[in-house]
Design a protein that fits this description.
Blueprint: E1 3-9, H1 13-24, E2 28-35, H2 42-55, E3 63-65, H3 80-83, H4 105-115, E4 120-124, H5 129-137, H6 141-144, E5 147-151, H7 167-171, H8 173-181, E6 186-189, H9 191-194, H10 201-210, H11 214-230, H12 244-250, E7 255-264, E8 274-278, H13 285-288, E9 292-299, H14 301-312
Parallel strand pairs: 1-2, 1-4, 2-3, 4-5, 5-6, 6-9
Antiparallel strand pairs: 7-8, 7-9
Bound molecules: alpha-D-ribofuranose (RIB) and calcium ion (CA).
Residues 10, 12, 14-15, 38-39, 125-126, 151, 160, 166-168, 241-242 line the site of alpha-D-ribofuranose.
Length: 314
């Protein structure tokens, strides 16, 4: 049975790897790419999503442009230092030929949820402004989707933008608080698992060998990304954070999850901190009255890597 998903994304090199993984997955029905600012400005994210669809020959996949600003505060400074000037490392992509779907990302999410009630998993691999806005457009949205899987947060490990905050949540902490407080089934794939799986250069070389077009693009774009991640390290590595939620949809047995009450920091020091209290671990009503989510805490590294390689090889 195929998993119907909408992928909310800020492509982005690891987003590209995840998007191609979804395209290659026979048990994933990708209804659309809804873009958001984060790694790059939202206009670039939208054009990059069109580029990735065209590279993969998926010109029938709707691509929308979403929020370009955080719920509260200043415009982002983006992450070109991680993903490169155009979002794909040293690659300067040709302008895509395709057109965007005229709807906003939030409107597309609401329209699809109404069209396929209870069937869609929202997979968010960028900041959460589109999901927060969709909740405001359609307050019944949690009843209309099957669930939400996000790459973001850091429950029991340090952050990657501040000592306590991961980039997707830090980029739009108020939107994240809205999304985590909604009454839907949410699974968070944070740095607890994604930072635990460093990929060596040989991984992208194998992807390129198995799939010269898509794997070759990942291999080429990841060189800049590996330069960033390998600073202050002995070994050369990179982290493909965004494919984890999709891997879990397909093979949940590769992951261990824990459940807890979650709150998101929205202050100066705790901006974007995802504080998860497993049930029964705190007397505080600030957490015990908050929503519970599932958090991925462990993943089978070798089986995950094999899944990525085998899927690119299809
Ligand atoms: O912290 C990693 C996350 O931030 C990934 O989604 C990456 O693409 C960036 O958006
Ligand atoms: Ca991303």
């Amino acid at each position: 049975m195929a998993h119907k998903i909408i992928l909310d994304t800020d492509p982005g090199i690891d987003d590209a790897m995840a998007i191609f993984f979804a395209f290659q997955s026979p048990d994933i029905e990708l209804l659309g790419l809804t873009t958001v600012y984060g790694n790059v400005p939202v206009t670039m994210a939208a054009q990059n999503a069109l580029t990735l669809c065209e590279l993969a020959g998926k010109n029938d996949i709707p691509v929308t442009k979403g929020v370009g600003m955080p719920w509260v505060g200043e415009e982002s400074t983006y992450a070109h230092f991680v993903h490169g000037e155009h979002g794909f490392g040293h690659i300067k992509p040709e302008p895509p030929k395709g057109e965007l779907d005229p709807r906003s990302s939030a409107q597309f999410i609401v329209d699809m949820a109404r069209k396929y009630p209870g069937e869609i998993t929202l997979v968010a691999i960028g900041p959460l402004g589109n999901l927060a806005l969709a909740l405001r457009l359609e307050p019944e949205l949690p009843k209309l989707v099957k669930g939400v899987s996000i790459m973001g947060g850091a429950a029991f490990v340090p952050g990657n933008v501040t000592p306590v905050a991961e980039a997707n949540i830090w980029n739009d902490a108020h939107a994240a608080e809205i999304v985590f407080a909604a009454d839907w089934d949410l699974v968070m794939f944070g740095l607890d698992v994604t930072n635990d799986v460093p990929f060596a250069p040989t991984f992208v070389d194998v992807l390129a060998e198995k799939n010269p077009t898509l794997g070759g693009f990942v291999q080429e774009s990841a060189q800049f990304y590996m330069d960033f991640y390998s600073q202050n390290r002995e070994d050369r590595v990179c982290f493909f954070h965004d494919a984890f939620p999709i891997a879990h949809l397909r093979h949940p047995e590769l992951f261990e999850l824990t459940e807890g009450h979650v709150r998101v920091g929205t202050g100066t020091l705790d901006r974007g901190q995802t504080v998860v209290a497993p049930k029964g671990t705190t007397p505080s009503p600030l957490w015990n009255d908050a929503n519970t989510i599932k958090v991925a805490t462990k993943v089978d590294h070798s089986r995950l890597e094999k899944l990525f390689i085998d899927t690119y090889a299809l």
